[in-house]
Design brief:
single chain, 83 residues, alpha+beta, four-stranded mixed sheet, 4 strands, binds zinc ion
């Protein structure tokens, strides 16, 4: 299941593929999106740690009950629709 693919349809814009999944430091398994080279996540959260999670896994929920920043999701979509 890929929420970003669901949002954008079959053709995922290149910029979304380039986004990095980062983990917030406050909550466990709470993820944000970050543009490569930026220190802050899309939503402005700066206390994030790098992960090796591919952006394709955004929205995937396992038994760990991962959570995904709704602001980052929204901003990723807006970045695309504003172009
Ligand atoms: Zn965020």
């Amino acid at each position: 299941m890929n929420i970003l693919k669901k949002i954008f349809g079959r053709q995922q814009p290149a910029t979304v593929n380039q986004l990095l999944v980062v983990e917030g430091v406050e909550g466990v398994f709470y993820y944000h999106l970050r543009i490569p080279g930026n220190r802050e996540a899309l939503c402005g959260e700066s206390r994030v740690m790098q992960t090796s999670i591919p952006v394709d896994a955004w929205g995937y929920k396992s038994h760990l009950h991962e959570r995904y920043c709704p602001k980052c999701s929204q901003l990723a979509v807006q970045n695309e629709t504003n172009r």
